[in-house]
Amino acid sequence: MTIKRDSSRRERTVGGIGDSIAHDSASKHVTGEARYIDDLPEPPGTLHVQIGMSTRAHARVVSLDLSNVKTAPGVVAVLTAADIPGENDVSPTPTHDDPIFAETLVQYWGQSLFAVVAKSRDAARFAARRATVVYEDLPAILTIDEAMAAQHFLEPPYVMQRADAAAAVDAAPLKLEGRIEIGGQEHFYLEGMAALAVPGEDEDMTIHASTQHPSEIQHKIAGALGVASNAITVEVRRMGGAFGGKESQGNLPAAVAAIAARKLGVAVKCVYDRDDDFMLTGKRHDMRADYRVGFDREGRILGLDMVQAMRCGMSFDLSQPIADRAMFHADNCYYLPAARITSYRCKTHTQSNTAFRGFGGPQGIVACERVIDHIAAHLGLDPLLVRRRNFYEARQPQLAVQRAAGFPSPPVRSTTHYHQDVEDCIIQDIVDDIVRSSDYDRRRAEIRGWNATSPVLKRGIALTPIKFGISFTKTFLNQAGALVHVYADGSIHLNHGGTEMGQGLNTKVAQVVADVFQSDLERVKISATTTGKVPNTSATAASSGTDMNGMAAKTAAETIKARLVALLAAKWAVPLESITFKAGRVSSGAQTMAFDDLASLAWMSRVSLSSTGFYATPKVHWDRAAARGRPFYYFTYGAAVSEVAIDTLTGENRILRADILHDVGRSLNPAIDLGQIEGGFVQGAGWLTTEELVWDAAGRLLTHAPSTYKIPAMSDRPLDLRMRLFEPSENQEETIHRSKAIGEPPLMLATSVLLALSDAVASVGGYAHYPALDAPATPECVLVAVKRVRRAAGAAG
Amino acid sequence: MRDTVRFSLNGDVVAVSSIDPHTTVLQWLRNHRRMTGTKEGCAEGDCGACTVVVGESRGGQWRYKSINACIALIGMMDGRILRTVESLKGPAVASHPAGELHPVQAAMVACHGSQCGFCTPGFVMSLYALYLTEPSAPTLAQINFWLAGNLCRCTGYGPIAAAAQRMFALPRPAWDDAHRTADEAALAVLDTDETVLLEANGCRFFAPATEQALAQLAAESPTATIVSGATDVGLWINKQGRTLPVMIYTGRVRDGDFSEVSISPGGRHSQVFIGAGVTHADAARALQDPTLGELWRRFAGLQVRNAGTIGGNIANGSPIGDLAPALIALNATLHLRLGDERREMPLEGFFIAYGRQDRRPGEIVIGLSFQVREARTLAVHKVSKRFEDDISAVCGAFNIVVDNHTVTSARIAYGGMAATPKRARAMEDALVGKAWTRATIEAAMATIDSDFQPISDMRASADYRREVAANLLLRVFLERAEPKTATRLVGVGGAFGG
Fold first, then answer.
1. For residues A60 and A76, what is the distance between their CA atoms, to the nearest angstrom?
2. What is the DSSP letter of B31?
3. CA of B424: how far to CAs of A755, B20, B101, B475, in Å?
């Protein structure tokens, strides 16, 4: 970002709302000057801590002998549960089921058992391998199958329903049953987990951590050390990627570093290497969906009965709200007159699965789109037609008002299976637009013709829409705070409770604050997120970072602005309303003053130039026991058309072209929003194609490094990618400048890739046999589906 | 014998001695020099976050190339020019007190090429190597070639690809020339012929500069670990924590057969010789063979191809090394040297069992040779989960000669199908002497089970490996018998470009 400060009078500021400003750290990223945790200058005597891991999936720990660890070169200390002054727990929920160090029972291969503190990171790493642990093996439950058979769940199944789905399916003229297996996904943030704990006076401790949730780390470390939260300060300037993986899973390395720092009285750093990160941390939940759907001859759904089974791993972590969100998105964009969604939260002896961009939503949407695709194949219809026939009613902004006024339930196709009305549906407009711009109809016909002439390579195309609910579904989390200072020279210091993980949150919030004061963006200094400035924050998650922190920062800035206006109105003896801020100046009629001079004047006049701001999302409420309410403030929409090619000899595949049209309301920063869309789409495509997690029969993860776990590389992006923001658009709700959240939703646009692959596979059976392609659609998975379809066609022919 | 490793770091000559020879370049930069711009993403050469640029002179040609600092050992830098992300900016001047961004960096900013920024220094250095090598803005295929070894989890790559083109539209920075002049001058001083010995903690790292010295050292230390690009040895150190008491590094050798690619004239018998010390990137460039070139393009990432050598790939004996099946199908001859004694053997016989090769203690691989005409009938197909920067599930190499609609000879070898790279004898027998027809091919495909009993692992199941191995023969047939049938998604002969 190069913004020249220009003191001459200009019409507008640089870096205001809607400008495609580069990421605030871009210049530091490209020079290597941007610091991540492991780059921070180390306090003298800093030690390094390594977690020692379980080598069993489920076992009693008979004995733990660390004598060989202690005598390894460079080792300073070892830590076990006995060294924890407070509570042995880092779980993000009140379930207390994530011990810092397992004591008598290990529940996954890779679980933290002890830690080694040494003078170098390598010394600690290799010393940890010298532990002698005697285990007594217990039967391990590793898969969804095994957990379902043993009824091994974290909690009882949860149901969302509307009307009598089973009866509706039974009574429907047509019905189908099916199953889809959807694999998990490793976050593969490029910066692994990292924390540096620096002890201070008394019981104080400062933690520099790579985390989306500094307040939770503060809280958990206070608990582990047995001190009050006010003794712990957690700071994060930036993360090298997170994607949900650092919402709760950063608690463990931070706690281990803090316990070691407390015990030894020096700074201690805990940095996971790539393999440890894979072995220790949870991933996206894999899910199986079994469905029974009833529909009419046009493909209109009459009832859906779906059972979702999610593999949660050994503890709760965030699995409850994640599994809930998979249920919330079982409808995607479609009205379900009768629906029952049943969710099983399988407890397995594997890594505790956690938040990952979309938070269960992607699994729900992929399962839903499979149902639609299956119906279309059964009826021999273009799936797009079936989609359109099932969309929620467009734009019903008055529904809630009508209901509140006691009107009878309106007879529109707008109510979800969790009894929230979809008031802001614009998916019809988006789909109409992208069908035209992507030339969908012509290309679909052309592809079918081409396939008839190509015996080895086959092409496929699919259009999938998304609707994604915005808000934390645990309602109390929908709150945010900010702190703004204006200094006497007119420069602005901005702090808020959100964390920067690459998504451009700091840039957008700074744009919001600069806009309030009509200052150039370069006058706004973004500072590291710290629990010392903004307390009790929620994780930066659920795509809500800008919505909530932007509003809180705006409120803080407007509080200061109101004081400045009052000061100037009195000085100039003009009405408050006559004072305007524009392009670095404050004016009323002919009187004008530079903003910087006004700041100085305020200081001289003893007017406070500092304010906090707070925001709580309105309208949301959720009664989980009744499974009714309005969990989402609003919905965001988008659609993608993907065209792929497969090789029927090997199953290898490529994305030839992708068209994306996505709604962000009024964009605060189109460049950042498009960056989230492209990155999310490619990440989603990776999830659904090459990214395969493999555990062996003993429960050991075999894919624990980029040599074996394959995220998309440069050439895996679509050969031809065409993205647009849906315009004109604005959020129907009063969000920050009427924008919409962007972080998670684009990932789900990649559902089109999976269904395009399915379309290509279907071609080998003349489109008469549904491939029922699972995810990830690796070359092997595609080849197996090709064979399945060929066999079915052979049997039928 | 010199006991100090000397190289140029960002324009300054540095001398390193008494350092543990297992220290990687990345560890040295970050821990010893506190230069933290270069990042660790995986410590195994797969993600590229640690990419640095090395300058060197080969055959009188000056060049810069990218390598992974995480698996390069510090001793390997001797006599080299090392440039890191910290050195790209221009000098501090009045208009840019902190130094002006290099066009590579400015283009990345302008194109929104960074989000979280952690992979960014690595991308910047790969782009820098591209910028210093290519004369003009690269095509998308070239961008894929240059950046396949860098992973980004945020951007989806499009903005980085845009930056790769945009950077050529920006004014050329004057300081690039100054850097190069300084680097060439430094190299002239650093480039010497004496053997270097780095010794600490009871471990010794020898870096001989001639083939003679290399052969002699190896013979004298028969249990030493021979290190070429360290693209595997680096993992033994980083991942397994192995201690290697004696290492002999081959990368400084610049003379003899060991370090050259030659094509001997001889008409029908013209022969290719590839020295063991030649990197994959250099071999691909020297041979310009479309079939082998396509295999090399999908061989790891460019940083690994810039470091890893032909000899290392063969001597390592991995069942999934991609070169061996192709060279066995070419009926290549392996050249070995023990002290002053040289011997030759068919490459095929070199691989005895998993982890065991026919290499005597102290013997080194000097190179490989094969007949040029063999390459004309070669087809190689690699199948992996991801197209680039991945390890084969199956790699099949087919050297089938058809004369007058009849198969007159067939040498077929597979990687990923057995404990060693191995020939498919039954498949060959099912082809030779038969008519070149689909029926013959289908009969030959059915022999796969008698040739191979592959394993299931995280890359693929045994069933998939068997099926695809057979199908690759069909692909070879279709490509020759039905050239109008599209059989490849991308790459050479790809139906869809890219």
1. 28
2. I
3. 37, 45, 55, 16
- At A409, the pLDDT band (50, 70, 90 cuts) reads low
- CA–CA gap between residue A289 and residue A372 (Å, rounded): 14
Whole-number average pLDDT of chain B:
95
Sheet holding A112-118, edge to edge: A75-79, A112-118, A47-53, A268-271, A194-199, A205-209, A232-236, A529-530
**Which residues lie closer than 8 Å to A156 by C-beta, 6 or more apart?**
none
Residue A114 to residue B22: CA distance in whole angstroms: 27
3-state secondary structure of A161: strand
Q: Which conformational region is residue A583 in: left (phi greater than 0), alpha (psi within -120 to 50 degrees), or beta?
A: left
Cβ-contact A116, A63 below 8 angstroms: no
Cross-chain residue pair A783–B464, CB shorter than 8 Å: yes
> Using a CB-CB distance cutoff of 8 angstroms, which residues of chain A are in contact with residue B121?
29-32
Q: Cβ contacts (< 8 Å) between B41 and chain A: which residues?
A: 190-191, 274, 706
CA distance B100 to chain A (A): 10
Residue B353 has pLDDT above 80, yes or no: yes
**A641-655 burial string, b = 16+ CB within 10 Å, else e?**
bbbbbbbbbbbbbbb
Judged by CB atoms closer than 8 Å, whether chains meet at A190 and B460 is answered as: no
Q: Which residue has the tokens 């300054």?
A: B12
Contact B324, B413 (CB under 8 A): yes
Task: Look up residue A326 and give its two tokens.
Answer: 């998979």
* DSSP per position, B390-414: B--SEEEEEEEEEETTEEEEEEEEE
Q: How many CB atoms sit inside 10 A of residue A265's CB?
A: 9
Catalytic residues of A: 744
**Residue A239: pLDDT band with limits 50, 70, 90:** very high
Q: Is A679 on the interface with B (CB under 8 A)?
A: yes
d(CA B112, CA B106) in angstroms, rounded, equals 10
Residue A402 has a pLDDT of 79
Integer Cα distance of A55 and A62 in angstroms: 13
Other C-beta atoms closer than 10 Å to the C-beta of B357 total 17
Residue B115 has its nearest CB partner, among A456, A675, A690, at A675
pTM for the model: 0.97
**Chain B residue whose CA is closest to A22:** B112
In terms of residues, how long is chain A?
Answer: 797
Token pair, residue B124, equals 């910047």
Tokens of A352: 């505790």
Residue of chain B nearest A778, judged by CA positions = B385
DSSP-assigned letter for residue B30: I
B193, amino acid identity: D
- Check CB contact under 8 Å for B387 and A652: yes
Strand, coil or helix: what is B140?
helix
Query: Residue A4 — very low, low, confident or very high, per pLDDT cuts 50/70/90?
Result: very low
Residues of chain B contacting A188 with CB distance shorter than 8 Å: 151, 153
Pairing of strands B5-9, B81-83: parallel
Tell me the average pLDDT across A332-340. Answer: 98
State yes or no: ipTM above 0.90. Answer: yes
**Per-residue pLDDT tens for B69-84?**
999 999 999 999 999 9
* B389 within 8 A of B318, measured Cβ to Cβ: no
- Could you give the dihedral angle defined by the CA atoms of residues B290, B291, B297 and B299, in that order, rounded to the nearest 10 degrees? -160
SS3 call for A126: helix
**DSSP character for A497?**
S
* pLDDT digit string, tens, across residues A561-603: 999 999 999 999 999 999 999 999 999 999 999 999 999 999 9
Cα dihedral: A735, A739, A744, A748 (round 10): 120
Asked whether the beta carbons of residue A33 and residue B241 sit closer than 8 angstroms, the reply is no
CA distance B252 to A103: 52
Tell me the β-bridge partners of A659.
A641, A722
Half-sphere exposure of A721 (CA within 13 A, CB side): 26
Q: Which residues of B touch A651 (CB under 8 A)?
A: 464, 468
